[in-house]
Write a structure and sequence with these properties.
The complex is a heterodimer of chains A (112) and B (108). Helix content of chain A is 0%, strand content 53%. Chain A has 112 residues and is an all-beta fold. Chain A is globular, with a radius of gyration of 13 Å. Chain B is an all-beta fold and 108 residues long. Chain B has no helices and 10 strands. In chain B, the strands form 2 sheets. In chain B, strands 1, 3, 4, 8, 9 and 10 form a 6-stranded mixed beta sheet that branches. Classes of the chains: A mainly beta (112), B mainly beta (108). The interface between A and B is medium-sized, with 23 and 20 residues.
């Protein structure tokens, strides 16, 4: 069974440019999460989806970040425009039940 | 949300048991304790979870104190591939709140 798939694995952009990350969760997992992980820190929750509905986006910086999960399967996280402080690893996870999360390998973003 | 406290780093000799402690004195009665680990350049990986009773699976054992204020993750025979950051975290309401974790170094 394939795990959570994220792409791209790495992305380097200049500040003020837009960027998008894609996530394909494990089939049948209705709950999907986006986390951001800064160097040396634990992951921080950005947004949580139940099917196609964002049920917790309180930590998502809505002035520049947006996310969508069309048809309740794949999800896209976008930053526009990117800032230097957005450099981090962006992790996607899906969950079949409370507390048990399956994470993708993440997208490492570098903003120059 | 319950707050957890873990030592920032630990060393363990290969083949020996690794015992990773976690303090979660503010955990509520219906919050499970979950353990995850993150190997370098990978996403976090689920290890084990428990509520009141001790738990064991193919990866590890989890010992929870009777008052539920602390727990210990035990890797019975640590290998070099167990070198990772280990996170102890409660989960309630469908969220996992990560702290700093314990960086475990398994040495030959």
């Amino acid at each position: 069974e394939a795990g959570v798939v994220q792409s791209p694995r790495y992305k380097i952009i200049e500040k003020k440019q837009p960027v998008a990350f894609w996530c394909n969760p494990i089939s049948g997992h209705n709950t999907l999460y986006w986390y951001r992980q800064n160097l040396g820190q634990g992951p921080e929750l950005l947004i949580r989806y139940e099917n196609e509905e964002a049920v917790d986006d309180s930590q998502l910086p809505k002035d520049r970040f947006s996310a969508e999960r069309l048809k309740g399967v794949d999800s896209t996280l976008k930053i526009q425009p990117a800032e230097l402080g957005d450099s981090a690893v962006y992790l996607c996870a899906s969950s079949p039940r409370q507390g048990v999360f399956y994470f993708g390998a993440g997208t490492r973003l570098s903003v120059l | 949300d319950a707050k957890t406290t873990q030592p920032p780093s630990m060393d363990c000799a290969e083949g020996r048991a690794a015992n990773l402690p976690c303090n979660h004195s503010t955990i509520s009665g219906n919050e499970y304790v979950y353990w995850y680990r993150q190997i370098h350049s990978q996403g976090p990986q689920y290890i084990i979870h428990g509520l009141k009773n001790n738990e064991t699976n193919e990866m590890a054992s989890l010992i929870i104190t009777e008052d539920r204020k602390s727990s210990t993750l035990i890797l019975p025979h640590a290998t070099l591939r167990d070198t990772a950051v280990y996170y102890c975290l409660p989960s309630e309401g469908g969220k996992l709140i990560f702290g700093q974790g314990t960086e475990l170094s398994v040495k030959p």
